[in-house]
Amino acid sequence: MAKINGYLSDRDTLTLSYNMTRDNANRPLRANFTGTFLPYSCGDFNAFPNEQNPDDCLFENDASLFKTYSVNLVHNVSLNYEREGGSRFGDPKLKINGYTSIRNVQIDPLFRPNDIATTIPFTPNPQLSQGEENQCVAQGGIYDATKQTCSITFKSLGGGSVVANKNLFIINSGFNANVIHTIDHKNDNLLEYGLNYQNLTTFDKAIPNSELVKPGDAPDACLRVTGPNDPNMNGRCQRNGATANVVGVYAQANYTLHPMVTLGAGTRYDVYTLVDKDWQLHVTQGFSPSAALNVSPLENLNFRLSYAYVTRGPMPGGLVWMRQDNLRYNRNLKPEIGQNAEFNTEYNSEYFDFRAAGFVQLISNYINQFSSTLFVTNLPAQDIIYVPGYEVSGTAKYKGFSLGLSVARSWPSLKGRLIADVYELAATTGNVFILTASYTIPRTGLSITWLSRFVTDLSYCSYSPYRNSPTDIDRRPSDCPKTPGIFHVHKPGYGVSSFFITYKPTYKKLKGLSLNAVFNNVFNQQYINQASPVMSPDEPNQDKYARGMAEPGFNARFEISYKF
Fold first, then answer.
1. For the TonB-dependent receptor-like beta-barrel domain, which residue ranges apply (predicted)?
2. In a domain, 154, yes or no
3. Which pTM value belongs to this model?
4. Would you call 158 helix, strand, or coil by DSSP?
5. Confidence at 64, pLDDT banded by 50, 70, 90
C-alpha cells in the first residue's frame, strides 16, 4: 500500500494511492456453504413426492470434496484532485477522481473431472420398467448392481463449469467530477452537480478461443431467445465476457426554508450499455430523482422524510457462469426500478441519544441473473419485490460510560412470501439485537468496548426467484406447499460477542501512536451468519440446497500505528 499527497497550493490537493492484496490457499470451490442435498438415492426422481421415506432420497453432497487451489489478487489505484471552496457561490469546491481496480481470481481444481468423488448406497425403484435408466445412471453415476451402490464422478456431481479451471478477471474503472457551490454559507446550503463514468469488464481467461461461439458459427448459434422454452435455448453462444459502461450526470441542492426546515432535492440521468456473453448490446437509460425534508423543532431533535426513485440498467453478473454456454440473455432487458421511502427521527443530548427509522422499498423489473431456467430476464411486471423494515437504537451516556441497544429487522417479500436469499439484494434474517457497552478514560487515552450481537431463529416457507421453473419443487419434508419456487428455510439463531481495546497515549512524546486490539467471538460460538446466502445459485436446476459455512471461532487481531 502506498499513498502520496501533493499540496499544489493552500487550497489544491493531489492524492495518488495504490494498494495490492494477494492471498492463496487450498479451499472448497464454493466457500459460502458446506454442502448440498441431491436426490441421487431416489429410484425415480419424478416419483419423489410419493416415496414413503422421502428423507432416504436425499444424498448429502459434501462441498469439501471439491477442493481447489486458488489465488486472489487485487490491484487498486486512484488519483484524486480536490480544491477547497470558498463561502461565495462563485468560488466552488472541485473534486475530480479517477480509479481502476483489477481483480484476478485463479481457481485450479485439485481433482480430475472423471475421478470418483463419492460412492453411496443405492437401490433402484422396483416400479421402474427394466428398460428404464435408474436415477443413478440418469444423473451420470455408475451403478453397481452387485454392491447396490452408485459411484459419482466429480463432473457428474458438480457439472462441467465446476470442474473446469478458472482465471477470472473483474476490471472496474472510471472517473467522477463534482462541482459544489455554496448558496448560503451560514446554513450550509449547497448546489452540487457533476459527471460520472464507469466501465466494468469481466471475462474468464481460462476459456480458450476454440470454445468461443459467435453468431453465424453454426445454424443455431446465438439465435435470439425470447423465453426459457424457446427452442433457440439449445443453441450455444459464448463471447467469454461482459462489458458495461455507465455515463451519468446529476444535480442536487438543499435550501433552508426556515431555521427549522431544510428541503433537499436532486436528480440524475444515467445511460447504461451492456454487451453480454451472447454478443447482444443492451442500451437502457432513465432518471433517478430524490427529495428529502428535514425538520428540527429543537436543536437536538430532528425529523427526516426522504424518497428516492432509482433506475439501474443491466450490469455484468454471475462470472462463475461464464463458461455456461446454454445460459442465455433476453435481448430486451429493461432497467430495474427501485423506490425507497424512509422516515428517521434522531434525538441527541448530553446523557442520551436515540434514533428510530422505518423504510419501505419497492423493486420492479428485477433482473434475475441466476434463474434455474438459465434464461436471464426481468421478473414479470406484477412481481414487485417489497421490503419493509425498521431500526431503533438508543445510547445512554454518563461521564466515560455508555450503554447502547439497537433492534433492526426487514422483511424482503415476493409473491406474498419472504424471499429466499438473493445475491444481488440481500439475505433474509431474523430480528437483530446489538448491545454495546464502553468505557473511555480521556486522561489516559484508553477506550474499552464490548459488543454483543444476537439474531433470532428464522423458519419460514420462502419464495425463491432463482428456483422458478415448473420442476423446482421443494423435495425436503416440510409443511410448505409443494409449489414451484416455494422452499422451506431454517436459519438457527445465535449470539456472538466481541471485545475491543484502543489506546492512544496522551503524552506529547507519544502523540500519533495508536494501539488496537480486537477479540472476536470471545466465547468461541459455532454459528452460521444468517446474512450468508443459503440457496446455491450455481446450478439451481440440479435441485441443490446449500448450508452456510460456519463463521470463524475465537480470533484476535492486534494493530500498532503511528501517524506523524
1. 7-522
2. yes
3. 0.84
4. helix
5. low
Choice among 52-61, 224-233, 281-290, 471-480 with the minimum mean pLDDT: 52-61
Residue that terminates a domain, selected from 132, 159, 186: 159
Residue 38 has a pLDDT of 52
Q: How many angstroms separate the CA atoms of 161 and 167, rounded?
A: 12
Do 43 and 150 meet the contact criterion of CB atoms below 8 Å apart?
Answer: no
Give the tens place of pLDDT for each residue, 263-282.
Answer: 999 999 999 999 998 899 99
Which triple of cell numbers denotes residue 362? Answer: 419497492
CB 331 within 8 Å of CB 280? yes
CB contact burial 18-37 (16+ within 10 A = b; e otherwise) = eeeeeeeeebbbbebbbbbb
**Within a domain: residue 421?**
yes
Q: Which domain holds residue 147?
A: 31-57+118-159
Query: What does the pLDDT average to over 374-384?
Result: 90
Place of cell 480430475: 112
Give the phi and the psi of residue 123 in degrees, each rounded to 5: -125, 115
Task: State the total domains in the chain.
Answer: 2
Indicate the burial class of 158 (C-beta count within 10 angstroms; 0-12, 13-18, 19 or more): buried
Scan for cell 426522504, then name that residue.
Answer: 306
Report residue 157 CA to chain centroid gap: 26
Between strands 513-520 and 59-62, the pairing is: unpaired
CA distance 323 to 164: 9
Where do the H-state alpha helices sit in 46-174?
A: 135-138, 154-158, 160-163
Residue 155, C-alpha cell as written in the block: 463432473
Give domain status of residue 89, yes or no: no
Close Cβ partners of 315 (under 8 Å, ≥ 6 residues apart): 200, 244, 272, 274
* CA angle (9 as vertex; 4, 11 as ends), nearest 5: 95
- The one-letter code for the residue type at 272 is Y
